[in-house]
Amino acid sequence: MKKTLLRLMAIAMSMLFIAGPVMAGDNAVQTVSYTVNAINDISVSGDPAPMNVSTASAGSEPDEVSDATTTYAITTNGGTDAKKITAGINTAMPSGVTLKINLAAPADATSLNDVDISNATAAVDVVTAIDSIAESGKTITYKLSATIAAGEVSDSKIVTLTIADF
Asked: Please, are residues 164 and 86 in contact by the beta-carbon 8 Å criterion?
């Protein structure tokens, strides 16, 4: 029995030496091509509530009103300080009525604070120096003021936020 076991072991060992090291079969090579495209997405949580200028202290201009109930989310892979957010309005505000916007800046970016967009039919900067980032829940604050010269007016405006190169 021992002789048989020794013979089998000898045969197995010799096969290893004859066959040489165990080699894998043929190789197959693949080239994986890829692209990461520019990503510049911005979205808002909804529309702010209607803003009504309706009070004033006697002898003073009407009181400014504000709304900070909406937020925005931003994703961009543009690089360090490469992007900005601009704001534009579809048509100018009536004479005597001022609309301002303030966007909370993403990390390491710069908010330009209360930016007057009353006549911004061409977009104006509101946040600059934006790095590659993905953030949400950033507050949008609108401020509406009117002089007594504005009289009684009622309208709505479309504000467009855009990510652009800085």
From this structure: yes
The secondary structure of 113-159 as a DSSP string is -SEE-TT-SS-EEEEEEE-SEEEEEEEEEEEEEE-GGG-S------E
Does the pTM surpass 0.85? The reply is no
Pick the closest to residue 124 from 161, 75, 165, 82 (CA basis): 161
Please write the tens of the pLDDT for every residue from 38-92.
Answer: 999 999 999 999 999 999 999 999 999 999 999 999 999 999 999 999 999 999 9
Across 77-113, the runs of DSSP E, i.e. the strands, are 83-89, 97-103, 110-111
Residue type, 163: I
Tokens of 38: 């520019």
